[in-house]
Amino acid sequence: MMLAIEGEYSRSASGAAARMASATLLAILLASSGVAVAVEDAMQTLTSARFVQSAMPTPPIEGGMPVSLPDAWEVSRPIATGYGWYLLKWIPPSLDGDPSLFLTAATMPSQVYVNEVLVGSTGSPSEKRPSAWEQSRAILLPPGIVHAGVNRIAIRVHERAAGVGGMGPVLVGPSQAIRMRAYADLMWFVVGPAIISTTIVVLGLIIIMLWLRRRDPAYGLFGFAATLWGLHTAISLLPGPLLPQPHWVIWWHAVYMAFVGLLCLFCLEFAGVRWQPYRRFVIAFVILVAPILYAAAGFDALVPAAVYVRATAIGLVIVALAAVARYAVRIRNTESLLLLATASISAALAVHDWLIAQNPLVLRPLWLVPYAALSFLLLVAWILVDRFVLALNESERLNTDLEQRVAEKSAALMLQLDDTRVARDASEAANRAKSRFLAAASHDLRQPLHALGLFTDALSRRVHGAEEVQLIGRINTSVASLESLLSALLDVSKLDAGVVEARIEPTPLEPLFERLAGDYAPEAIERGIKFVVVPTREVVESDPVLLERILRNLVANAMRYTQRGGVVMGCRRRGGRVGIEVWDSGPGVAQDERERIFEEFYQIGNPERDRSQGLGLGLAIVRRLAELLGHDIVLRSRMGRGSVFAVWVRRATHPVFAERALPESLTAPLRDRRVMFIDDEAPIREGMRCLLDSWGCRSTVAADPEEALAIAAGMPPPEALLVDYRLRGGMDGLRAIAQLRDSLGADIPAILISGESSVEELARIKDSGLLLLHKPVMPAKLRSALAFVLMK
């Protein structure tokens, strides 16, 4: 409601101000016009004179050539400069009253003599030329200087520039009549334009304030156009130019043309028409005015160039006003008819003023465009303010309706939130149940798979037939696929649980690239594609293990989807970051799938869930690892051309690395090493015994810590412990290892083997600091881990 009141106040205030200004101006001008007509008959107009080109300081008596006033030097003496005298004769009809003299137009410094007596001047002959409002002068003649018969009037002039001087008719008569004529002249030529400029500036500022509230282009264009025109008119009334010539003339035109351009663009916005070619021409015209006039000044053609510039501006304004007229005809109401009338009058008077400007004999022209344009601008401003108020009222109504609808929606939303809260609690309960189920199912699945891996590896060392070896190879392939699936699921579970910690350190990319090249080159050769690794010596800040896991998943993903061409891995540096990029020539990724491919189990072009094409977990793990490390993953792709996955990593500022030689213990054989394995399932124990024996270990197996202690009695303690995490009777691997160490009195190296996937248990194992192998454990991984703990 306050906005509506404010808008109504703005509209009424601006409308009242506009009406008051226009009414005051109209009253002043009408009064001055009536005064001028009333006193015109009481004065004599002297237009016949003689001109003497002379520098003599006193009025000549006779001589010279006859001239008719007004006398424009541009026409009568285009190359003349210096001093001269205008000699006139005046026979007063009577000697009643105090006579006075009025110079209607003296465009150069002038001194007026009556009967050889200096009575007044428009400036000393050595001073600058008078400004526009100083070029007319009312002079009260001293008593007794005028006598009956012929009186001689001599006007001494001085012009420094060639062809620019001029003298208008001289009026003589009673002082009262001369004063009234001077008053009318002042109103038309000075006060009227001053009032117009002030009104237009205030009007423009009001519209600019409305534009700041509404941001409608029409308001901005009109506000700045009106303000610019008002200031331009006010500056034109100053006593002298603000810049030396020709700069003043050039920039006077440039600023005026800027107003014209803004006004033309406003008219198009106001009328709702586009006219793009016309818009572009207007903008280009405004920009080029100053360069064109400077170029013309260089060829001494500034005056004719300015004439053509003003003519072009009039043409542009007429076209713009035609758009406004079109709008007015389409609306057809009183407001639009007034708009059409004022626009037409303004266009007609613009042509009139341009024609007057071409007549050199009009020394002091009266420009009519500001008077007509003021009505046009006032009317347009009233329309804009009215539109603004209507918009405010509509906005207030919409706000009220919106508040009511928001209150209704809020009430409905609160009910939905209650339902959502109930559903969320049920979802969280289901999620907890799912986690417990996955943990149990994961363990139960891993146990037989773990045993199967142990038995197949031991069996492969005891058979030699080609068919049997091939069959065992297929079994190992299936076991490896299952192991990959369960490991990926466990990776996702661990990352979501937050039990994976990143150890950021300076990481050289060169050894990492070499390992990937060696691991994936055979697969590339087998698939008939190229795998190229671009060498690099960059060092980045990252976790080397987790970063390698990211790159392995990206390379494996690129290999999987590349049927021809190849895969390229390299890096590029930008500032303080290094982008590790994996390029492929695969089918590409559509725009709407670039986010979904990072979801779990989502694969492009594999609705049948063919396991040979992967599991759909690789990129999900990549995103989680990247978030953990604080790296950015960027995907660019073109359909049918391939894709590029980039990992952006911070570049190491002080990379210092110590050479690490692989301990001989890691590569030494496990023969004759004492290893004890504890698991509550007999098939797992038997499989592990066969595997350890095939490696040459001196193995012992037990179902629980008590059996292990009984077996170990009377013999050297084991050198390493392999313990399953979940044992019978509620016992777990952590307590079993602690019990064995206490009983045997030695800190025996130990490895936990687990199929757990629950967040709580994984966190507990991590806190223990023991090495953990996830079921199913591949024999090669178990052998490496066993060699590692034995070395420690």
Descriptive labels:
single chain; 792 residues; alpha+beta; six-stranded antiparallel β-sheet; 19 helices; 24 strands; 55% helix; rod-shaped; disordered N terminus
Task: Tell me what the structure shows.
- There is one protein chain.
- This protein is of the alpha+beta class.
- It has 19 helices and 24 strands.
- The strands form 6 sheets. It has a 6-stranded antiparallel β-sheet with strand order 3-2-5-10-7-8, with no helix packed on it. A 5-stranded mixed β-sheet has the order 14-16-17-19-18.
- A hairpin with a 3-residue loop joins strand 18 and strand 19.
- The longest helix has 92 residues.
- The radius of gyration is 51 Å and the shape is rod-shaped.
- The two termini are 82 Å apart.
- The N terminus is likely disordered.
What is the structure about, briefly put?
The chain is of the alpha+beta class.
Mean pLDDT across all amino acids? 78
Tell me the total number of β-strands.
24
Whole-number radius of gyration? Answer: 51 Å
| Low-confidence runs | 1-39, 606-612, 657-667
What order do the strands of the largest sheet run in, or round the barrel if closed? 3-2-5-10-7-8
